[in-house]
Amino acid sequence: MSQYVETACKTFTAGAAIPLYARVKLTAGKLAVAGLADKELGTAEQEAFADGDVIAVRLRTAQGTCKMLAVEALAVGAAVYTEADGKVQDTAAETSFLVGTALEAATADGDVIEVLRNSHGDTAIPAA
Question: What is the pTM of this model?
């Protein structure tokens, strides 16, 4: 049966533990943490503690801003790109995607920052 949502968030079943505000993707019908080269489905609005937990995801198409996990220190206004472990960074890699703009500074790995998503969709970074 098909369905659709007209909201910013949708619930999904996790396939493993997922940190709060991590970028997530679907793998075999369950949520997994998104990697460096993955376009995420959205960001986890709740922490998943184990396989089978049902959590809300802020979809990448949602209006407004979202919270994300930084992997490094970054400045307000920095362009942020995909990184491993569901995080974002301010350095573009050959296989990363542009996610948006940091609206808060991060000082260390694991800091939660506010991000304004790229309004043109996730953009692949061209190979060097």
Answer: 0.90
Provide the token pair at 95.
């296989």
Handedness of CA 92, 31, 109, 116 (dihedral sign): positive
Q: What is the DSSP string of 26-66?
A: EETTEEEE--TTPPPSEEESS-B-STT-EEEEEETT-SSEE
- Please give the mean pLDDT across all residues of the chain: 92
| Residue 36 and residue 82 in contact, taking contact as beta carbons nearer than 8 Å | yes
User: pLDDT band for position 120 (50/70/90)?
Assistant: low
CB of 81 closer than 8 Å to CB of 125: yes
